[in-house]
Amino acid sequence: MKNHFENPSNEVRPPWIVYPGIPPGDIFWRFGGESYMHTVFQAHWKSLTDQDKKEYLERWEATGEWFNDLDPEMDPDIRDFLEELYTE
């Protein structure tokens, strides 16, 4: 299992690592985690290409609930790939 505390690349950590156990639809993201989600994570996420997003989600072991919530405009082929990957 990946050690989520090691981050040699200093890459922005995803919300499911920074705040484990808090699902994407939780009220926390509107009150406690909003600044992290919008200021830090979304800025990083929007800078990635669709291929980079796919690799990021694989690298950080995103669950299905997260990749569906992160980017509704993601390339449909990448979304299909991720759905297959995380529903197996």
Outline the secondary-structure elements.
Elements lengths: L14 H4 L9 H4 L2 H13 L3 H10 L4 H7 L5 H12 L1
Key words describing this protein structure:
single chain; 88 residues; mainly alpha
Walk me through this protein's architecture.
The chain is mainly alpha-helical. The protein has one domain. Helix content is 57%, strand content 0%. It contains 6 helices and no strands. The protein is globular, with a radius of gyration of 13 Å.
Concise description?
The chain has 88 residues and is mainly alpha-helical.
Shape: globular
Low-confidence stretches: 1-6
Report the count of strand segments.
0
User: What is the distance, rounded to the nearest whole angstrom, between the alpha carbons of the first and last residues?
Assistant: 18 Å
Number of helices: 6
- The topology string of helices and strands comes to HHHHHH
As a percent range, the share of helical residues equals 55-70%
Largest sheet at a glance? none
